[in-house]
Write the structure tokens for this entry.
Amino acid sequence: MQAKKGEISAIAIRVILLSAAIAAILAAIAFFTHHYKAALSIGAGAGIGSLSFLALVVTISGAANPGRMGVRKGLLAALGLLKIAAVGALLWWLIFEKIVDPIPFLVGFGAVVLSLVVEGIRAGRAMERAG
């Protein structure tokens, strides 16, 4: 069963909105308990995680329609490696310069992972109901 492009976009939007809501709640808790750097780290983790997820969705959407975008497997692999390198370099810089704390950053990044799990469970249940 193949998902349509509109369905992929709707799923991506729900994942990003849910992860933003989770991260906002967690960052607010950190902020109001006077852990300002943790709040910044949670927001940075969720933001970078969401951008990484969005880049993955765009890449996969392009692969689903290679005729329109002229995408080849080698280019997709190169884009994937470039995304991983960019996220890794940004993460290294943020932690090395002590702009963010690693654990709260991972909590924010984990908000994206949690939203993917929740959306996957929701989509699975919807498929079971559909038959």
